[in-house]
Design goal:
Length: about 300
């Protein structure tokens, strides 16, 4: 009799625990309780089989990302959903109206930025082309040094950055060459106006040519290869024999024009003429003595 009562109580206890086990399991899942829950197979196992709860993997696939970041579960948005840099209608339909408006606003701002950048680039290119054309016209009118061209362009109120860029570009292409300009200027002033080294140097320095380039041009024009048969006097004075002969010829014309005046006045006139053109006293004295010996009074 006692054994029967014990067995009956055990059956009742198992039945109660059987009916309460699903509730305990759900409670543990809902409230994350740390108490031990005993699992008893039975009807709940059958219920668990019939109800196909979605797995975590399926749930992750159903998430609707908008950034493509797999770490945050936003991995469904890829390049297949984009058309010409924008989400297609099928992709946008997955989102609420505020989200779609956010996408539209973002793309409109991006398009405005791209249009503005393109307009700025076109405007910069047109301004540069205009300045380049002005620079070419100035160089076609006459040769210039880099500083002269820079001053001309700055005088027209063009942007300094573009002017400097064009000057540097012209230098690299050989359109501006201070060394060649210095030599051409020295030779031209010497042959056409009988300018001396001192006056030519002063003019080149004012035009922005370096002193080194100025000195190189002076030697190239005035100190050409000396004739071995010459007395070497011209070289000592910084001018070769050919240059001295050319200078003496021009000074002779001035000397003969005033041959009806007294000798002292003729001397003073020749000295002023040579000094004004930039010849030092050594060259002036040499030419004066040669004139007096060549054309005695």
């Amino acid at each position: 009799m006692r054994n029967f009562a014990t067995a009956r109580i055990l059956c009742i206890y198992q039945g109660i625990e059987y009916h309460l086990s699903p509730v305990a399991t759900l409670a543990r899942k809902s409230y994350s309780t740390s108490g031990p829950i005993r699992y008893i197979p039975g009807r709940f196992a059958q219920i668990n089989k019939t109800q196909n709860f979605p797995s975590l993997q399926d749930s992750a696939k159903k998430e609707a990302p908008i950034t493509g970041n797999t770490c945050s579960g936003l991995s469904n948005l890829d390049c297949r959903g984009l058309q010409n840099g924008r989400l297609n209608d099928e992709m946008l339909s997955q989102y609420d109206e505020p989200v779609r408006e956010l996408f539209d606003t973002g793309y409109e701002n991006m398009n405005e930025l791209q249009t503005s950048s393109k307009a700025d680039a076109d405007g910069f290119r047109k301004i540069r082309e205009e300045i380049e054309q002005v620079a070419v016209d100035l160089l076609a009118a006459r040769a210039m040094t880099a500083i002269e061209l820079r001053r001309k362009l700055h005088g027209k109120k063009y942007p300094s950055a573009i002017v400097e860029s064009i000057v540097a570009d012209f230098k690299s292409r050989g359109l501006l060459n201070d060394s060649m300009y210095a030599e051409a200027f020295t030779r031209s002033r010497w042959l056409s106006s009988t300018w001396g080294p001192r006056r030519i140097k002063q003019a080149l320095l004012q035009k922005g040519v370096s002193e080194m380039e100025t000195e190189r041009a002076r030697k190239e024009v005035f100190e050409q290869e000396e004739d071995p048969r010459s007395d070497g006097q011209g070289t000592q004075l910084g001018m070769c024999k050919l240059s001295m002969d050319h200078l003496f010829l021009q000074a002779s014309k001035q000397w003969l024009r005033s041959r009806n005046t007294v000798v002292d006045n003729r001397r003073a006139r020749i000295v002023r003429w040579l000094q004004y053109r930039g010849f030092d006293w050594g060259v002036t004295n040499y030419i004066l003595k040669k004139l007096e010996s060549q054309y005695p009074s």
